[in-house]
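Sample intake sheet
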Amino acid sequence: LVLPSPEELKYKVLVRGIKRPTPTTIVKLWRDEKDDDKSLVDPQSQLIQKRLGDLFVYLQNVPFREYEYAKANYVCYHSPNIAENHFGRAVRDEPACVVQQTAKTLCRLYPSGIRQNSSNPDPILPWNFGVQMVAFSEKSAGVLGSPTGVNFARF
């Protein structure tokens, strides 16, 4: 299994998502011994959910892990998430490993949880280390010189 090239992905919408447990797993989790054999989820809904899930979970969200773990366990459709503060530590401690991982997977950086004012991280350092997606809050969009302004200027 191989992802399309960046050229083939131009003008496409990339969808990232969490792989949901199968309906069978859900039913097993919620079934009581007294329950009869009727499914807890409508079969039509199960079918639609499966078809949509198969179609749209193009990239599966996974946590950003050390490079050796990622190399052994992540496949081409895994898309690691990394928090801004964790990224800073990873870049400081193992910059080559960050570059190796971003070269093999589509990585996403999200703002630190301590950002209470909807400010955005500066995307330039993550971009320089190969992070392809930097999440922004649109609340500060349109401000020249802001991280969203830098994003707008670049793309």
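Comment: Strands lie at 16-17, 59-63, 78-83, 108-110, 133-134. The chain has two domains: 14-57, 60-155.
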